[in-house]
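ugh ok fine here u go
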Amino acid sequence: MTVSRTICLGFMTVILIGTLLLMLPISTIDGQWNDLIVALFTSTSAVCVTGHIVVNTPDHFSFWGQLFILGLIQIGGLGYMTATTFLLILLGRRFGLRDRVAIQQSLDRNELQGVSGMVRSIIALTLIFEITGILLLLVAFLPDRSPGEALWSAIFHSVSAWNNAGFSVFSDNMVSYQSSWLVNLVVPGLVIFGGIGYEVILEIYLLLRDRLQRKAGRLVVSLGFKVAITTTAILLVMGTIAIFFAEKSNDDIFSTLPLKTQWLAAWFQSAATRTAGFNSIDVGGMSTTSLFIMIALMFIGGSPGGTAGGIKTTTLRVMTSCTKAILQGKEEVLLYERQLPISVILKAVGVVVGSVFTVIVMTALITFFDPEVDFIRVLFEVVSAFATVGLSTGITAGLSTASKLVLIATMYIGRVGVLLLMGSILGDPVPSSIRYPEENLLVG
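structure:
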């Protein structure tokens, strides 16, 4: 039982427990036993913080069903190992080297020191952001709903947004609030901070603290901080502009809106597309150009150490830096005046190749099982599932059982990670002292 197998089986166990809970009669509005595929799909989507649904959440699940979904989202967002470690800390149990290595791998950290402190910081950050989101969303929801309904809606959407899940207890998701400044700032804000990585948020806090205390000296930030902040900002701005102009002439869902609402909707979708499955406009009515832009944004995803999926912003920057080095005729890869080690480059290549291979295979399977569905919509669905985004053009519920099982597997692979899943299957690498001769090869 290797560390990677522990993590993969842990997620699988939580999914199965969630499936059993969502099958119970108390989980459905009609009080009947839930369908197995519906329960399994919803549980996987919640634990993998994806947001894909085959039934409308508020119309199908009771309060208890929605509460179970919310619990699965919280566990999935924190990560199986983080949630387990926090429980052990509360019980006062000390964990050994194996537990520390598991936390290190699940959080994608470089060192083992300070693991328990990092877990406590993650829990504290989660509570701070989620409670803040609840209070702000409560202000937005109270004018339209009863106090009890507004409070539950605020709790559910705050937790869902912070964990980049995209689940909603509104039948139209966030379409009713597409012109609300507060909702269009709070929900994307939670999504962005939840997907940017815990260590980046801690560095932002330290930077602001030192500035407020007027400490002398220049604060040195990490390379990961620079990459996550700059890449996220660039993608948010480019995504907003691209979606706005791609949908500008769409009379069905966009052009009839006021100009302010158009920009708010473009901003909302740019932020939500990369990490969470919220939508403030009908995704199924968007143009093919917009769908393709969103596929690219979903595939990139968020940053390491957060609740987002995709290949991550750091992987994108490593690959672009490799391309830049080749074009400049350099033999080393530089990023912000730092040379990247070969192990990081090989990992980035492995993530991209494994991700592309997974998307190709799963898309081919669904087009085989449901050949009548448009290819662009199938590709959109698969990338959304793999990147744990959850956006859909509306084809999910109508897919065959085989295709739904394919999407379940895709969401699971996207959440645990391609490399981690392969490591759990192949086992730990065996060190070798053999060095083979080098030979050149024509490439490109």
